[in-house]
Amino acid sequence: MSSKYQESGVSLEKGYESVEKIKKHVEKTRNKGMMSMIGSFGGAFDLSAYDFKNPVLVSGTDGVGTKLKLAFELNKHDTIGIDVVAMCVNDVLAQGAIPLFFLDYLAVGKNNPDQIEQIVKGVADGCIQSDMALIGGETAEMPGFYKEGEYDIAGFCVGAQEKDLLVSSENTESGQIVIGVKSSGFHSNGFSLIRKIIADNNINLNEKFEDSTVGEALLTPTKIYVKDILPLMEKVNLKGISHITGGGFYENLPRCLKSGLGMKIDKSAYEVPKIFRYIQEKGNINEDEMYQVFNMGVGLVIVVDKKDVNTVLEMVNDSFILGEVTDKEGIEIV
After folding, report:
1. What does the DSSP 8-state code read for residue 57?
2. Where is 303: in which H helix or E strand?
3. Which of 4, 136, 151, 179 has the smallest CB count inside 10 Å?
4. What is the pTM of this model?
């Protein structure tokens, strides 16, 4: 092994150990298109294993952002991988695509095989929830760039769908119904503001909050909606889907609408989770800004014709009528 490389802060042996530790987690994500195992130069996927006739590939890439800082502080790394998968796969799902495979990029200050195993286990768990194969990735040890114990992670996923089955905003019309699906919490957006509020108020992350702690509530992994939406698409012609991420309601809801249309949202249609109200109170944030920054307890929005509303509510857990599409451009929250 390279002693000079070791002296620079990079351990080849730890890298090999990390690969061995994560192989069993990667194997659990195997689906019918997965061809290669970890260690190849590129991840191979057999699209012919699926019965697509006119497939369109849909891809998405994202990271977790400064939510990672809470994982460092709490030394909890087994769910952050779910977040990175969710942030990618929910975007791909919003186009109506079937998720197929995922790759991750992990950069660390120092290679700690046990920590890396926990992170990649989370990635694998997210892929299992999405029925995706984890077909490759990269772990880079970068001493002097990241502090020891800290890291960054990003991901990339690919889905596919028949061209005529993709969900398009061009199919939205005034009078259609907007259905919300509950989030699991803040997901992975707005954490720079959340962390500032924590610092300004000297909040102890181990402070009791409901049945857990403030830190555990904030680290709750992002919900993945694949197993809610794909079965629904076999029964209902979905007119629009919006994944509520950074920018909250005002930025994300228009993305699933045809130009010139808007939405009227009834915020009394559901109960905003207490963790949002806790952060709002501690940060002295007005209501409108909360809806500009956070998902406010709604992680996904579906637009359907009135005749399909009951089917959606029956098939999708934690769903509710949130509002309607209007012919007035913009988002009105009442």
Report:
1. E
2. strand 298-304
3. 4
4. 0.93
